[in-house]
């Protein structure tokens, strides 16, 4: 963003020194992850419940077999990434089969974090893997089609999160707005498969048609918990070349994620639309932070809603500005916004 401030009140706080750390585990393991994270200094998280789709044919690479999964996201200073990845991997044995997946995404901007992160002076680590993230958002019931298309290579499974569309997409029945039910499919795929999978999905799901779905990919910095298929070993040079080819087309789009208390998703959507967005996808979640009550520490786990807006980069500034002005994100506890670049989007709604 080339503008110095998003608003007069605040937004110097567009901090670029944060990373999104994501953990995908069986639901019965999720609480252990969050409790341990608090002990090592990560006191805030947001989690989503979903389902996994691994089959015996693909367990060579994706080694989580339990159908019930939880996706837990943490926003941490980038300087702490290596330390936190190492501690979580050692504690929960992500290097072993069937323990879960752990990966990181570098964030371009963050709002609503009260403590400014130290500048990251560490070497760039985004060439540790040739995997990238792939996200497909479709109407409820079509997630299985996404996975059928993508799993032809017998490489991958995925995680499905229930979601719903924004008010703009709603249908009114007897004056009640019925928001369409959606499914978000999250997968990690080899970078050299991205274009092929995109083309298959566009053809199968007619993603170029209005309101048929959204597809995009995003960069992964580090990953633990995925086992390479036999014979699928690449040198660091090959990994760098594949990522360079994928990143050759500059990412002109962003994913803007806004985390707010339950019931405020409509305010986020309206603020984002005022900034230039059309439509959003909303996930239900739980959040947590630790609050000191004199002699005791109490865990607070309120319900949250996460609003995902996919937009052209030239609208990112205005959308963040409107959300910030609505929620006063410089005040603690109002919400969090984070942004990361995306590639190869299909099916977006923009003015």
Summarize the structure.
The protein has 351 residues and is of the alpha+beta class. The chain has helices at residues 27-39, 81-92, 143-150, 194-205, 236-247, 265-275, 313-327; strands at residues 18-26, 45-52, 68-77, 101-106, 109-111, 131-139, 159-165, 171-173, 176-178, 181-190, 214-219, 223-224, 253-261, 281-293, 296-300, 303-312, 336-346. It has a 15-stranded antiparallel β-sheet that branches.
How many structural domains in the coordinates?
A: 1
In percent, how much strand structure appears in the residues?
Answer: 35-45%
The strand count comes to 17
Q: What's the alpha carbon Rg, rounded to whole Å?
A: 19 Å
Low-pLDDT segments, ≥5 res: 1-13, 170-177, 290-298
Helix content: 10-25%
Tell me, what's the shape? globular
Structural class: alpha+beta
Number of helical stretches of at least 4 residues: 7
SSE pattern, N- to C-terminal:
EHEEHEEEHEEEEHEEHEHEEEHE
Largest sheet: 15 strands, antiparallel
Question: Would you kindly provide a written description of the structure presented here, covering whatever features stand out?
Answer:
Helices cover about 25% and strands about 35% of the residues. It is an alpha+beta fold and about 350 residues long. It has one domain. The strands form 2 sheets. The protein has a 15-stranded antiparallel sheet that branches. It is globular, with a radius of gyration of 19 Å. The model is unreliable at about 1-15, about 170-175 and about 290-300 (pLDDT under 50). Pfam families: P-II. This is P-II family nitrogen regulator. One of its GO terms (molecular function) is enzyme regulator activity. One of its GO terms (biological process) is regulation of nitrogen utilization.
């Amino acid at each position: 963003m080339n503008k110095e401030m998003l608003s007069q009140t605040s937004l110097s706080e567009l901090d670029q020194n944060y990373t999104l750390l994501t953990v995908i585990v069986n639901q019965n393991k999720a609480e252990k992850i969050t409790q341990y994270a608090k002990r090592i200094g990560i006191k805030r998280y947001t989690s989503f419940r979903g389902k996994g789709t691994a089959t015996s044919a693909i367990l060579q690479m994706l080694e989580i077999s339990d159908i019930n999964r939880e996706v837990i996201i943490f926003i941490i200073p980038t300087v702490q990434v290596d330390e936190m990845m190492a501690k979580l991997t050692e504690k929960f044995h992500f290097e072993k089969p069937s323990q879960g997946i752990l990966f990181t995404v570098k964030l371009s901007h963050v709002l609503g974090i009260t403590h400014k992160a130290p500048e990251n002076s560490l070497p760039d680590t985004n060439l540790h893997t040739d995997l990238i993230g792939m996200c497909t958002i479709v109407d409820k019931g079509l997630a299985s089609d996404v996975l059928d298309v993508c799993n032809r290579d017998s490489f991958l499974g995925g995680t499905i999160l229930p979601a719903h569309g924004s008010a703009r997409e709603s249908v009114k029945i007897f004056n009640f707005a019925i928001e369409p039910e959606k499914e978000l499919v999250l997968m990690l795929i080899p970078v050299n498969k991205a274009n092929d999978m995109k083309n298959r999905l566009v053809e199968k799901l007619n993603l170029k048609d209005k309101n048929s779905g959204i597809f995009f990919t995003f960069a992964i910095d580090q990953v633990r918990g995925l086992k390479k298929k036999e014979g699928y070993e690449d040198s660091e040079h090959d990994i760098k070349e594949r990522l360079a080819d994928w990143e050759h087309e500059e990412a002109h789009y962003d994913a803007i994620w806004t985390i707010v208390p339950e019931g405020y998703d409509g305010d986020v959507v309206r603020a984002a639309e005022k900034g230039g967005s059309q439509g959003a996808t909303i996930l239900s979640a739980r959040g947590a932070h630790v609050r000191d009550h004199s002699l005791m520490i109490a865990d607070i786990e309120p319900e949250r809603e996460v609003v995902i807006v996919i937009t052209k980069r030239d609208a990112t500034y205005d959308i963040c500005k409107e959300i910030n002005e609505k929620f006063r994100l410089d005040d603690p506890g109002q919400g969090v916004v984070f942004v990361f670049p995306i590639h190869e989007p299909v099916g977006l709604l923009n003015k």
